[in-house]
Amino acid sequence: MSKKLETELAKSTIYNNRWKANRPESWATLKEARRKPDCERMRAYYAENKERLRQASADRYAASQVENRRIAQEKRAARTVENLVRRLMVRPRLTPDEIKARKAEQFRSWRERNLEKCRERRRENYAKSREQELAKATEWKAANVGACRALAAKRIAAKKQAIPSWANPENIQAWYDLAALVTEETGITHHVDHIVPLQSNLVCGLHWEGNLQLLTANENHRKKNVYWPDMPERKRA
Fold first, then answer.
1. How many domains, the chain?
2. At residue 46, does pLDDT exceed 60?
3. Can you give the pLDDT at residue 235?
4. Taking Cα atoms as reference points, which of 233, 171, 235 lies closest to residue 207?
5. Structural contact between residues 116 and 219, judged by C-beta atoms closer than 8 angstroms
6. Domain membership of residue 44 as a residue range
7. Position 236 pLDDT exceeds 60
8. Do 101 and 53 belong together in one domain?
9. What is the pLDDT of residues 131-164, one digit of tens each?
10. By CB neighbour count within 10 A (0-12 exposed, 13-18 middle, 19+ buried), where does 197 fall?
11. Which residues on neighbouring strands pair with residue 192, listed in sequence order?
């Protein structure tokens, strides 16, 4: 389009807009006069071609739906591939053994940070199902006689090696006699416990009268070999 024609069209547009703004009533009348013939003509055309127009509209809608579904599927597929690539890039593929080791390490780390909570939960569970726990222990001992004998022999050997020269056998025996007497008088099982455990990952105590104390069976089972006076702070945590 030439510049001259563009200029004329621009002037004509400006003139028409001014005329519409200055004569709104005339413009409304003119629009109404133009619209009526068009509306009548469109109504007549629709009445003559009603079925064909409806079918054409339905075909266009169906085609658009198919196209929309195709586009949506392509977008979903692209997002899926993108997410998979991102996951593979961020987290390398691990073997089942590596996954198992990672979970075990995570649990071990969490247990070290929440050792007291684990102990409390263990004590609560034991109190709720004490009879079942004892039955399981008895069943395990019956099915693993060899293992029980090996553990007993290991403890006896450790106790023999842990007896110092200054230990008094009579005083040691007095602790065990006291435990038996208290158990008989109270009806509550009492054990002679080593204050510093004979066997532990960090310390090995001695079997002498100064390292013995009287505890109930439940207290002794809770204590095990994981607590003693002046133990390292990292072991307490």
1. 4
2. yes
3. 47
4. 171
5. no
6. 3-87
7. no
8. no
9. 888 888 888 888 887 777 666 766 776 666 777 8
10. buried
11. 214
